[in-house]
């Protein structure tokens, strides 16, 4: 009885080779896609750093108006010592970057380092241009708008310029305070410092600039068109779904259960823009006046069929 080992058929060998080629092709496409994503990210950070430096160096800094966080500390340190802004921006952020690497992640740290370096370079270049206005209030408003747009673009690209935000993110996990509350608390001390370094008028202008910057960051990161998620608990979910599908882009039915009665429930879920919220509520209450409706703000949407409606 012979123990012959049959060689794989040509068809099997061919299939295996094709599989390897397909896997290699997929890997190459994924690598290229990842590389393009990194390039776009760096370009966005560069644009954001350029815009932010214009707001700082042409509007805020020449009028002794500061931003909050580490940027504000760096501006005051430059005023007191005469050393470049970028030196302090990098130095003050170093301990926060170590914290971020441990608690947030490597990608965030890399994006933040790139953003800090680019802002330092762009600030040196923008500092050579004359200031746009001598009015500190106008500087606070327009400098805040421009700076906020730049910082918002950097944040959308996954980076940051402010180590205090890193502290706030970590503190949020170990305290009853939110990220926003912690950032505000820290910035109250930093902006108060402007009163001692410059004068109290400049501190108040800096507070105005800080609120303008914060609002512009929200506009850039969340968009001008506010979007809302609506959840409806109704005894007529099918009728609601049919009607809503005629007026908005899409409706999803979620299967649930009454917590008290244990009865099966179908929950209607949809995402709409701010102009459609009232219309949806009116439709729901016209079909089921006892329906339970919740409306929540949505910060970002990826995929799906949702598109901004033309107003």
Can you walk me through this structure?
This protein is about 65% helix and about 10% strand. It is α+β, with helices and mostly antiparallel strands. The protein has two domains: about 35-220, no CATH class; about 225-300, Alpha-Beta Plaits (2-Layer Sandwich), CATH 3.30.70.120. The longest helix has about 50 residues, at about 10-60. The radius of gyration is 27 Å and the shape is globular.
Short description:
The protein is built from 10 helices and 4 strands.
User: In what range is the share of β-strand residues?
Assistant: 5-15%
Q: In the residues, how many domains can be counted?
A: 2
Could you report the average pLDDT, rounded to the nearest whole number? 81
Number of continuous helical runs = 10
Distance between the amino and carboxyl termini: 83 Å
Structural class of the secondary structure composition?
alpha+beta
For the report, how would you describe the main beta sheet? 4 strands, antiparallel
Structure summary, number of beta strands: 4
Instruction: Supply Rg.
Output: 27 Å
Share of residues in helices = 55-70%
pLDDT under 50 segments (min length 5)?
Answer: none
Apparent shape:
globular
Strand line-up across the major sheet? 2-3-1-4
- In N-to-C order, the SSE pattern is HHHHHHHHEHEEHE
What is the oligomeric state here? single chain
């Amino acid at each position: 009885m012979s123990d012959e080992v049959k060689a794989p058929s040509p068809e099997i060998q061919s299939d295996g080779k094709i599989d390897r080629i397909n896997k290699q092709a997929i890997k190459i496409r994924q690598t290229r896609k990842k590389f393009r994503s990194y390039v776009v990210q760096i370009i966005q950070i560069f644009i954001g750093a350029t815009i932010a430096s214009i707001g700082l160096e042409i509007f805020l800094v020449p009028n002794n108006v500061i931003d909050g966080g580490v940027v504000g500390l760096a501006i005051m340190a430059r005023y007191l010592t005469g050393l470049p802004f970028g030196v302090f921006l990098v130095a003050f952020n170093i301990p926060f970057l170590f914290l971020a690497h441990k608690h947030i992640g490597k990608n965030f740290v890399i994006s933040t380092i790139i953003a800090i370096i680019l802002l330092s370079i762009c600030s040196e270049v923008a500092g050579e241009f004359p200031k746009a206005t001598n009015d500190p209030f106008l500087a606070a408003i327009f400098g805040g708008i421009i700076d906020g747009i730049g910082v918002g673009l950097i944040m959308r690209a996954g980076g940051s310029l402010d180590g205090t935000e890193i502290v706030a993110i970590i503190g949020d996990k170990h305290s009853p305070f939110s990220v926003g509350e912690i950032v505000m608390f820290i910035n109250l001390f930093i902006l108060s410092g402007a009163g001692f370094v410059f004068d109290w008028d400049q501190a108040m202008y800096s507070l105005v600039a800080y609120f303008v910057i914060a609002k512009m960051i929200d506009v850039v990161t969340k968009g001008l068109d506010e979007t809302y998620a609506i959840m409806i608990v109704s005894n007529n979910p099918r009728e609601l779904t049919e009607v809503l599908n005629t007026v908005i882009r899409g409706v999803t039915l979620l299967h649930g259960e009454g917590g008290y009665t244990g009865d099966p429930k179908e929950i209607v879920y949809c995402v709409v823009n701010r102009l459609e919220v009232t219309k949806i509520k009116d439709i729901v209450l016209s079909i089921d006046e006892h329906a339970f409706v919740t409306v929540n703000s949505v910060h970002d949407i990826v995929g799906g069929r949702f598109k901004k409606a033309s107003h």
